[in-house]
Amino acid sequence: xxxxxxxxxxxxxxxxxxxxxxxxxxxxxxxxxxxxxxxxxxxxxxxxxxxxxxxxxxxxxxxxxxxxxxxxxxxxxxxxxxxxxxxxxxxxxxxxxxxxxxxxxxxxxxxxxxxxxxxxxxxxxxxxxxxxxxxxxxxxxxxxxxxxxxxxxxxxxxxxxxxxxxxxxxx
Length: 171
Prior knowledge:
Helices cover about 45% and strands about 0% of the residues. The protein has about 170 residues and is mainly α. It has one domain. Helix 3 crosses helix 4 (about 50-65) and helix 3 packs antiparallel against helix 6 (about 100-110). The model is unreliable at about 130-150 (pLDDT under 50).
């Protein structure tokens, strides 16, 4: 079950993280938010209120006055994420459900050292853009399945019984 949830999350992440559709002031989300901690609340928001996620991020970028994400360090990304988390609690006529509580839960993973809030710490297992263009994912990120041992002999399945009338047992 968890493997299916992870596959679903990765597919959802592909819909907004590295696409022009969710670009904020000309920057893809993957250029603005590159920490594991930052991606978590974005994914959570996209599941809970997908139409609000990009708008809240744009508003956070505007409120912080940050520009040129290619020159940001961890401190700038943290400022953006903190502004974003505040905005998503009240944004729209139907704000995100339990936004504060959900953000606190994600923050606990940073405090425990499970995930990082350092800029550049999030690395998708399979870069979406490269795969969409027909490229290959880096070999270091994709593991090949373990080889299966060759069988010494080839087994044949037993023949199936023919359907129809059965012969009565001989006495």
